[in-house]
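User: Run a structure prediction on this.
Assistant: Running it now.
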Amino acid sequence: MLRRIQNPIVEMMRRGAAPAAVILAMVPLAAPAHAAAITFTYNCTIVDATTCTTGGPFGTLTLTDSIVDPNRIDLDLVLNGPNLGAGAAGVNNFFLNYDNSAPFGAGLAFKMVAQSDPAGTFADSAGVGDVSFDSQGPLGTTLDIRLNPVGSTPSLTFSASLVLRSNVGPAHTEYDLDVSMFDLKDANNLLYSAFNTLPGPRTFSYGAATAPRPVPEPASLGFFVLGLAVLGAARRRRTAA
């Protein structure tokens, strides 16, 4: 005889559990193993390799697991023009840290391509920016990766997909990237990310000195909305009674 498998959340609601308890029970179901997206907020002006003075906000950088190719990370940079230094026209380079225990080493290279590029086409793409293991951020800071957008016109926004690929042989195998690989501070324990502005190589330099905030997945938001609906229904029942 087959037993009917009960959904624990539905069962709690059927038995009249308190709405708050129902919502708390939803949390483990809604929480992913890791964040699908994180956002760095640039909140300080870089003075030197060990000092970043609080200010801004000067912009944000969001890293998202790509829906076009799960191996890639989408990058969306938005600078806050009014808060930048006088004469700053747009982004020059931006910088990230990378977990060297992840895929790393000889024969591997990062590349930035358009977010719309289909999976597997990056080898033939001209790309939208250069990437290098810089080990040198703005003003001597020790971030790992320098990302240089392509284009002659300065801009306050930039979007791309970051690819890690093998540069050996014709196949150019992609390696799986995850946003958690970039969620760490530099060697000086100062910055999670940084950028500098045009014109000039380093007109103004800004950093993200605080941990990035996770961006909720759609499923998590759905559970939250459902929880609010349960609370609303419970309150209406109590009022009617």
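Residues 1-6, 26-34, 219-225 have pLDDT under 50 and may be disordered.
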